[in-house]
């Protein structure tokens, strides 16, 4: 498959695409803050809060691409883009790289995938039975709580970033402390200087909650509800990546909204593939898997959330039965 992809030229860098993408994102982001200052102390600012939620997600997607070296060939050049975008949204790029690298190495592995290690959710029966107290109650009804919990994801990302930077030895720690401190200082100063205290608090809540919801809805379809693995045995690389991932069907609009993460299978097989090439790689990978009898999961956007909720509800079923 690698030879097919390389011969098709799908691993070539797309400097023009990313130059345009980054320039438009930064321009829109800056324009949003100009509009924020112009609008002043008004409840109409809540529409801009929603706009900034979208922009934070779009900036995060570029940081994700930089982390996978999709933009430039060298690590240093990609890291510059990644650190800058992390600073714009208030995330530790280094923390995210560590988490995401471990996820890619062992997707949906119960012990080794950090994306399955979420205290307020249970993705396997073993995780559900291990819950105690309030967390066990949450696991029982996690399908109903899933989307409300995603509203807190933005705050969780900020907290995890700050916690990481409190530990010495983190890569580029001083740079990230400067970037995150600058982000929070400028963000909070701008919001509280322009808006009245109540409007400012509501603005922050709307912005951060919608950003968290957007991020969660972009990442969850890729793996949640797909087969999980445990222990030391695992299939070969191809099957490990394909069988634990799910694509989301859709056109260019879905590609934009989900930042290319709708091609989760192709992304996991070729993490450094530039985002605009994933659409072209999809039929090649699908055909390759079909010829070898490897199950290839893809469905519509809304249906994928149905699968996620069904899985979470099924994991909570034994816990609900035990409470009666």
Properties at a glance:
single chain, 324 residues, mainly alpha, two-stranded parallel ribbon
Q: What share of the residues lie within helices?
A: 55-70%
Strand order of the largest sheet: 1-2
The count of β-strands is: 2
Mean pLDDT level: 94
Pairing-aware structural class of the strands and helices? mainly alpha
Structure characterization notes:
This protein has helices spanning 2-7, 15-39, 45-67, 75-89, 93-105, 125-130, 133-140, 142-150, 153-165, 173-194, 197-219, 237-243, 252-257, 264-269, 278-291, 301-322, and strands at residues 246-248, 297-299. The chain is mainly α and 324 residues long. Helix 3 (45-67) runs parallel beside helix 11 (197-219), helix 8 (142-150) packs across helix 11 and helix 9 packs across helix 11. The chain is globular. The termini are far apart. The model has no long low-confidence stretch (mean pLDDT 94).
Q: What is the fold's blueprint, element by element?
A:
Blueprint: H1 2-7, H2 15-39, H3 45-67, H4 75-89, H5 93-105, H6 125-130, H7 133-140, H8 142-150, H9 153-165, H10 173-194, H11 197-219, H12 237-243, E1 246-248, H13 252-257, H14 264-269, H15 278-291, E2 297-299, H16 301-322
Parallel strand pairs: 1-2
Helix pairs in contact: 2-3, 3-4, 3-11, 4-10, 7-16, 8-11, 8-16, 9-11
């Amino acid at each position: 498959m690698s030879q097919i992809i390389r011969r098709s030229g799908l691993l070539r860098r797309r400097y023009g695409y990313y130059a345009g993408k980054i320039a438009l994102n930064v321009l829109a982001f800056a324009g949003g803050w100009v509009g924020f200052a112009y609008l002043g102390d008004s409840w109409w600012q809540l529409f801009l809060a929603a706009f900034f939620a979208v922009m934070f997600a779009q900036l995060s997607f570029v940081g994700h691409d930089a982390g996978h070296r999709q933009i430039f060939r060298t690590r240093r050049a990609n890291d510059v883009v990644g650190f800058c975008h992390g600073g714009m949204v208030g995330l530790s790029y280094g923390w995210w790289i560590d988490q995401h690298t471990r996820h890619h190495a062992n997707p949906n592995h119960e012990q080794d995938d950090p994306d399955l290690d979420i205290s307020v959710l249970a993705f396997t029966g073993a995780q559900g039975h291990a819950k105690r107290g309030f967390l066990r109650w949450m696991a029982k009804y996690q399908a109903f709580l899933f989307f409300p919990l995603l509203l807190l994801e933005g705050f969780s990302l900020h907290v995890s970033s700050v916690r990481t930077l409190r530990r010495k030895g983190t890569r580029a720690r001083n740079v990230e402390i400067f970037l995150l401190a600058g982000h929070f200082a400028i963000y909070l100063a701008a919001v509280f200087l322009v808006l009245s205290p109540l409007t400012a608090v509501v603005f922050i809540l709307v912005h951060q909650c919608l950003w968290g919801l957007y991020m969660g809805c972009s990442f969850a379809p890729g793996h949640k509800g797909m087969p999980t693995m445990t222990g030391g045995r695992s299939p070969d690389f191809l099957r490990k990546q394909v069988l634990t991932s799910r694509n989301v069907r859709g056109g260019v609009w879905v590609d934009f909204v989900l930042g290319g993460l709708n091609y989760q299978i192709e992304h996991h097989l070729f993490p450094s593939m530039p985002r605009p090439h994933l659409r072209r790689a999809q039929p090649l990978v699908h055909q390759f898997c079909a010829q070898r009898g490897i199950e290839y999961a893809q469905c519509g956007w809304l249906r994928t959330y149905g699968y996620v909720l069904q899985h979470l509800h099924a994991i909570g079923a034994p816990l609900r039965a035990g409470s009666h």
